[in-house]
Amino acid sequence: MSNTRNLSFDFPSISSTEWLNKIEQDLKGKPYENLVWNTFEGFTIKPNHHQQDVPSTSYNVNWNNTNDNSFLIAHEVVVKNEAQANTDALLALKNGVNSLHFIVSETVNLSVLLNNVMIEIIDLNFTTQTPIALAKQLKTYAKTHSISFNDLNGSICYRTNTTTKNLNLLVHELKESNLACISINSSQLHYAGATCTQQIAVCLAQLNEIIGELNHEFTIDELTKKLIFKTTIGYDYFMEMSKLRSLKYTVQAILNEYGASKSSCKLVATASTLFWTDEDEENNLIRGSISAMAASIGGANTIYIPTFTSANNKDGTRLSTNILHILTEESNLNKVIDPANGSYYIESLSKQLSENSWELFKKIEAEGSYNTVCKNDKLHGWILEKTKQLIEAYNNNKLSFIGVNTYNKSNYSLTLGESNVNLPNLKLVKR
To answer: How many CB atoms lie within 10 A of CB 409?
Structure first.
């Protein structure tokens, strides 16, 4: 007689109430509420999630336009000397980078900077205060080297926020090319201590203001392909993962209202260095790895991990890049579209973030616009309130960071530095 069991049956469905009863039974009299906690975002998080908690709406939008979750591996080069910057860029390409991000001054010698760089097969990005002049330079360089300028991939963006008039001129300059040029950057908000909700809402307000101004001269699809969102990925793994999903979902909702027919925006994610120290630098690498995983699962198009060593040496840069190779070649995070799909917890977080961000966005719009809340300092006030809460939580060890305020060689306090573009500015200072 065979002992083989028939396993071709479905397990019985267990309701949320049944799970809750089981949890209360296992707690042996301790209240369930003891396991519920509140996040920095103000969300109340349950210790268990059920299929009943999953929203009917999918909160993931695929901006990759591919059948997988592939992302570009980026390297940032601050150009002070074109020859040295070229050496750094070539070394990064040799180590497997396929997206170069140059931060340049007003004038730059592209013949030196891009020497031996095959710009036609990589993702090429420039951040500068004179993007139109640089775009003209790059057109000349491409023509000289028999390269189609319009087929180049990447971006040429303003280094800081600029007027819609300037953006109008830049979009006209790059209209026929594949290069993005409308940068919406939430990184300063992250380093100001803003919540994920605030970061998303401000991006939405900036987007709506820019599209509203430029849509008179360009179609929404022309503007959509010029959009590039830049964000910094912080310490809260699941929240940051949900932040990217919610950002894409809410941005797409606005674009759809304007009649966009396709999704071709870019999303660049950089690992945060806010809680990195020059001691126990391996912890920086671990934090960068966690941020990169959150960025990949959240659906970023491009990911960058800064060098984890204070010396900014070649080995530190190489290891930071190799983390991204491991995530693709060994962990295969690039193979599955929206790997977070079906996770009750992440879907629930994405829903809450999307709804809260949308409400704050509407609050900003009710005040007039993004520029209005900047000029009347209301945005500064909203963010400063959360900044102070973050500082208090860190300094009172309600937030623990190994090697920073827990199991640390030196004591670090989180303080407010000088304001940056009318925003608070957080600094980690050795006591």
So the answer is: 11
pLDDT digits (tens, 9 = 90+) for 386-406: 999 999 988 888 888 888 888
Nearest by Cα to 76 from 425, 320, 290 = 320
Structural domains of the chain, count: 1
CA distances to 96, 189, 204, 229, 292 from 197, in Å: 34, 11, 11, 16, 20
Instruction: Transcribe 364-384 into DSSP letters.
Output: HHHHS-HHHHHHTSHHHHHHH
Q: How many CA atoms lie within 13 A of 56 on its CB side?
A: 0
CA 225 from chain centre, in angstroms, equals 18
pLDDT, tens digit (0-9, with 9 covering 90-100), for 196-252: 999 999 999 999 999 999 999 999 999 999 999 999 999 999 999 999 999 999 999
pLDDT confidence band for 421 (50 / 70 / 90) = low
Residue 357 located in a structural domain: no
Residue owning tokens 């401000």: 202
Q: Is the pTM of this model over 0.90?
A: yes
Owning domain of residue 213: 72-345
Evaluate whether residue 391 is within a structural domain: no
Closest CA to 143 of 119, 109, 123, 125: 119
| C-alpha triplet 7, 12, 15: angle, nearest 5° | 155
The DSSP bridge pattern shows strands 37-38 and 44-45 to be antiparallel
Q: Are strands 302-304 and 266-271 parallel, antiparallel or unpaired?
A: parallel
Show contacts of 256-263: CB within 8 Å, 24+ apart.
258/211, 258/215, 258/220, 259/220, 260/220, 260/221, 260/224, 261/221, 262/221, 262/224, 263/61, 263/62, 263/63, 263/65, 263/224
Give every CB contact of residue 431 below 8 A, 6+ residues apart in sequence: 410, 411, 412, 413
- Gyration radius (Cα) of the chain, Å: 23
Task: Assess if residue 179 is contained within a domain.
Answer: yes
- CATH of residue 175's domain is 3.20.20.240
- Structure tokens given for 6: 């028939």
Q: Is residue 399 part of a domain?
A: no
Confidence of residue 419 (pLDDT cuts 50, 70, 90): low
Distances 295 to 110, 230, 369 between C-alpha atoms, Å: 31, 12, 29
Q: What is the pLDDT of residues 104-146, one digit of tens each?
A: 987 899 999 999 999 999 999 999 999 999 999 999 999 999 9
Q: How many CA atoms lie within 13 A of 252 on its CB side?
A: 20
